[in-house]
């Protein structure tokens, strides 16, 4: 990602989505106009502001949100071709948002009209309104603005579900995060330090390394002119990292394995560098290594709900205490979807 940190795309006025259809419950018609504005991907790297149909009326267990802000996520930006959301998801980008509750479905007890919230979405955040399962909605963390809150749900759920829930990273261990100045990286550094973990981060420039250091990384490694495997070994007394979070994929696989401690865990959340790799399996056997991979967007609603509950319990207190801060690179109004948004969308894909 060429720019540092996250980019919050503030929605001045109103903001978009279509939700998955649910035929189990009859739909109520929304007491609003039949059209809304949304950012539509019309071609590779091309975004356009369009008038589209309103979301379907909510059903039981759903919440309708008027979007105040959303955020740009690398995971939803195609490196080639056009935008292709998973089946059943909104046709519009936007994996997280903040805003105000406009309506709630039956069986939704926690949220009410007028509540200010943020949410992990199945897509559709680049619009004036979005329908989301109530179990994927979170309160705005104490001391955080609506704009800032939009930058948290996706990264918080990604990092917590992989590094902590699955890889079981715990206090006193050593954690290596690649791309420390990215959205995932800036969050991972802060939440790991909050939980008493030693953090090593890689980045590709002096400026990005400075960002990692400022956020609390103990060791910062320039992957362009240093061998991160050798550096990790050096900084850990020859042992290696206990957990590694990686989105490079193929080219880094063997090197990541070589950087792990005995009983180390590697979690892969992306394949920006390639999808294939040749691996020496003896490196896994001799040191009892674990390799896992997942994408948050493809998890089931039940899995996402469980992750959101843990994030509120273990991450939101850190944000409220000021120990994890939003790392926002730029904020753009909805009206610039055809211009500046396109620029950042293209930059993120490269």
TrEMBL record:
Name of protein: Quinone oxidoreductase PIG3-like isoform X1
Gene source species: Iris pallida (Sweet iris)
Region forming the signal peptide: none
Chain segments annotated as coiled-coil in the UniProt record: none
Limits of the Enoyl reductase (ER) domain: 45-339
Keywords for the protein's UniProt record, in alphabetical order: NADP, Oxidoreductase
Subunit structure: Homodimer.
A GO term, aspect molecular function: NADPH binding
Any Pfam family matching the protein: ADH_N
């Amino acid at each position: 990602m060429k720019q540092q940190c996250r980019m919050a795309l503030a929605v001045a006025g109103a903001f978009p989505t279509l939700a998955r259809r649910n035929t189990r419950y009859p739909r109520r018609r929304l007491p609003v106009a039949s059209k809304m504005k949304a950012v539509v991907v019309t071609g590779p790297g091309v975004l356009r502001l369009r008038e589209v149909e309103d979301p379907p009326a909510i059903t039981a267990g759903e919440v309708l949100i008027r979007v105040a802000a959303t955020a740009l996520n690398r995971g939803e930006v195609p490196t080639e071709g056009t935008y292709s959301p998973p089946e059943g998801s909104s046709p519009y980008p936007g994996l997280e948002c903040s805003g105000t509750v406009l309506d709630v479905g039956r069986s939704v007890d926690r949220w009410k009209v007028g509540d200010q919230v943020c949410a992990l979405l199945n897509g559709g955040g680049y619009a004036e309104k979005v329908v989301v399962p109530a179990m994927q909605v979170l309160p705005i963390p104490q001391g955080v603005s609506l704009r800032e809150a939009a930058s948290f749900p996706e990264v918080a759920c990604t990092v917590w579900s992989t590094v902590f829930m699955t890889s079981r990273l715990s206090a006193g261990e050593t954690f290596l995060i690649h791309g420390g100045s990215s959205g995932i990286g800036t969050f991972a550094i802060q939440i790991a330090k909050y939980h008493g973990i030693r953090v090593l981060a890689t980045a590709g420039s002096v400026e990005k390394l400075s960002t990692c250091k400022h956020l609390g990384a103990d060791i910062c490694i320039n992957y362009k002119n240093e061998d991160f495997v050798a550096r990790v070994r050096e900084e850990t007394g020859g042992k290696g990292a206990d957990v590694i979070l990686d989105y490079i994929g193929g080219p880094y696989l063997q090197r990541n394995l070589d950087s792990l401690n005995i009983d180390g865990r590697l979690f892969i959340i992306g394949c920006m560098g390639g999808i294939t790799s040749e691996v020496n399996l003896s490196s896994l056997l001799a040191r009892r290594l674990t390799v896992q991979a997942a994408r948050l967007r493809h998890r089931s609603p039940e899995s996402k709900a469980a992750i959101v509950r843990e994030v509120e319990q273990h991450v939101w207190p850190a944000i409220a205490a000021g120990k994890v801060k939003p790392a926002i690179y730029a904020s753009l109004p909805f009206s610039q979807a055809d211009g500046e948004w396109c620029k950042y969308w293209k930059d993120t894909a490269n």
